[in-house]
User: What shape does this take?
Amino acid sequence: MTAIGFSRGDLYYLLPELIVCTGALLLLLADVALSQQRQARAAWVAILSLGAAATLLAVMSASETTIARGTFAVDGFAIFFKLLFVMSAAVTVLLSHRYLTIEGGRPGEYYFLVLCATAGMMIMASGIDLIVLFIGLETMAVCFYILAGFLKPNRRSNEAAVKYFLLGAFSLALLLYGMSLLYGLTGSTALRAIATALASGSSGRLLAVAVMLLVAGLGFKIAAAPFHMWAPDVYEGAPTPITAFLSVGSKAAAFAMLLRIFFEGLPAFHLDGLGSVFGQPLGWASFFYVLSVLSMTIGNLAALTQTNVKRMLAYSSIAQAGYMLIGIVAGTPRGVSAALLYLVVYAFMQLGAFGVIVLMRREGVAGDELRDLAGLSSRQPAIGIAMLLFMLSLGGIPPTAGFMGKVWLFASAIEAGYFGLAVIAVLNSALSLYYYVRVVVYVWVRREEPGTPPIVLSRAMIVALAFAAAGTLALGVYPRILFELAQASAASLGRAEPMLGWLR
Amino acid sequence: MLEAIAFYGLAALILGFGVMVITARSAVHSVVFLVLNFLAVAVVYVVLGAEFLAVIQVLVYAGGIVVLYLFVVMLVNQKRTPEAHHDPHRKTGLGIMLASAVLAEVTAIVVYTASAPSASPIPVSSPVVGGNTEQVGWLLYTDYLIAFEVASMLLLAAMVGAILFARRMD
Assistant: This one.
């Protein structure tokens, strides 16, 4: 007879998620228990539980097993992503601290939602069963819907929340429909079983519909064109630290889910009898090819004319999703590892860039317009240098991490025979330099308008920005460690087996 | 064959009610069409042999959630004055009669069950995988245990969000 519930081993491997969830529940308690003056301690609870989860993840980094009856994989791939989520969540907490005081939100509820979203992402990175993946995605999405509208009197924030909720629910419905078709075709929700069932049978039209629905649903979550419409409005309206977390964490989690579904569940999918495109058989990579080209081009072209920095970074993040998709299109181990590497690089530079925008938010100044950045370097030279670094990295200029990331991505495309895609990507990178450099011009060349309130640094902000800047620079100069890690993680995809050893 | 007819008939009904939900002019009508939609989905579950899901669908969705919707729609949608809601043709007598009939029925059930001797002992150990309900329960606590547990965090987060947005109204 099979056992009900979790075994001891299952619980051990679930500890990082359990710690994050416990931290979230403690924060809900803290919201009621702590007096108004001590509310700031909520941030400490969040940071400590994230730190504990990260430590545990590092301890179990060598594991490669599946638990909970083969629905949950704890492998290098999952741990790579989980560390990325925990890190982005911690930076988000640091960025949020003073922002919340200015905006007047309740820290307990806010950090609770941030930790819940993190837990959802962690489930998404480990799930190898459609239902587990979906529940993780939904947990993350619900938290982000609420966080996007967290600012009370702000009309833009409310609009962002409603828009994100409606479009998000719609995209989840598409995704769920795709999943249910996949279940109907194969009789299983487990990705490995789906792969086995599809390997023997032929790929029919219904499967093509299922794949298209999955691509659309996940394309929405990674904000890839043509499913990107929500991103600029939501990024602009949401509280800035949440925008940072949304653009980094949510995107990375959706990429993790995408890699799990397509590389573990549908590795052999291709459309029979429809010929080939660019010398490759028509498969899901062809869909991502289109998504990648559209995202890069539309994102970069739209970003050129933006005057609101948050909006500009939203379009830029659409373009960045296009770059990351190149690795998925290539589909080789090198391509996947390049996408993983770029996700980490992107996290550092994107969190940093949004961190500077958070810093510009002061009493009476929204700080998210391009002209608000004028004269930043003369007031805070260190922040000016950091912003320069983030923008150069986003644009892909050496010696920053963004350059190394793009080199690996484009090289993987050429290696896999997608020469045209690499050319389009390089042209797009050149195009994007215009609007990244424009930000630098505002920060370093333009004079500030007289009478604007001073920029005050807090300790938490300094730690967060220094961390992001150090990561952006270090990974550009010495990317080897991360590259090896990304390669090992990409290689572990689909390899984990159920445990047999001492813990069972 | 029979199953296919049932399925396509029900699918047409579900789609039709779905369209009516979004095209109905009055919000109350749209909620009522939503109930019909959910009921048709419940019948699909019965056709598929998932009786437990069908019952849950009726109890939770058609019964619980949509009734809540109706309350909200009726409470929020106060365009007319409260006096206008007093229907001059209201049949108070009929209402009281129906209500007392339901009350009598419930009392009868309670009295009957309480007085009836517990003749048949409840089987001590139910089979591991028996009927529909057991199967669903078994799956929830084995294959989908993680999803089941994470759903509780999801619901908690949704609840916090609902309270957050509701508190803002005052």
Observations:
- Residues 1-79 of chain B form a domain with the Four Helix Bundle (Hemerythrin (Met), subunit A) fold (CATH 1.20.120.1200).
- Confidence is low (pLDDT under 50) at residues 120-127 of chain B.
- The interface with chain A takes residues 128, 138, 141-147, 150-151, 153-154, 156-158, 160-161, 164-165, 168 of chain B (CB under 8 Å).
